Amino acid sequence: RAVDLLSQNDESWITTEQVHYARARILRAAGRVQEAEEQEHLAAALVATRADSITNPEQRRRYLESPTHDP
User: DSSP state, 64?
Assistant: First the structure.
């Protein structure tokens, strides 16, 4: 539900992958491991897609090392 509502909110500082990672943490805490892993995979795919679009190697490295991508 949170991911569905993301486009309706003006909290542009929260990225879609952060929503997926947060949801994964909640699901994992609730014992729903498989669903948590699905959310983590969705988040990781978004991070990889964004990283692939960054042509400057140093900027790409900094993006990938950002703590916001740490599940």
Answer: H
- The whole-angstrom separation of Cα 58 and Cα 62 is 6
Which pTM was predicted? 0.74
Alpha-carbon gap, residue 11 to 69, rounded angstroms: 18
Lookup result for tokens 């500082």: 13
Q: Could you tell me if 46 and 17 are in contact, meaning their C-beta atoms sit under 8 angstroms apart?
A: yes
Mean pLDDT of 47-55: 95
Closest CA to 46 of 9, 6, 1: 6
| Dist. CA 13–CA 27, nearest whole Å | 23
The answer, yes or no, to whether residue 64 has pLDDT greater than 60, is yes
